[in-house]
Amino acid sequence: EVVNRAVTRASEGCDSVYVTIDIDVVDHAFAPGTGSYVYGGITSFQFLQLMDYLRSVPAGALDLVEVAPPLDPTGTTSRLAATGLIRFLLPKISGR
Fold it and tell me: Hey, which of 54, 55, 72, 86 has its CA 20 to 30 A from 9?
């Protein structure tokens, strides 16, 4: 609901919006590979739901920032970020 209101407000009168996602929004338990982690952030499932929702946004550009692979030897954060980007981009580039 909050994201929907923010997107609606940001996109009023615009052809497209610039979307930036900071991986720090994801709880440290799910995304340890970032320099400014938080406890009590969203889950990895909620992050992927967010990326699915953002497919409907008229985005001219999107970036996903603060992924720090050296801080996450298991690669969990990088995989989560890559999965989110794929879920956002694949329908756009496949025409679905």
Answer: 86
Q: pLDDT tens digits, residue range 54-78?
A: 988 888 899 999 999 999 999 999 9
Is the CB of residue 26 less than 8 Å from the CB of residue 44?
A: yes
Asked whether residue 59 is assigned to any structural domain, the reply reads yes
**Which residue range forms the structural domain that includes residue 23?**
2-90
Q: Is residue 96 part of a domain?
A: no
Domain count within the chain = 1
Please tell me the distance from the alpha carbon of residue 88 to that of residue 82, in angstroms, as a whole number.
10
DSSP of 62-93, one letter per residue?
EEEE---GGG-TT-HHHHHHHHHHHHHHHHHH
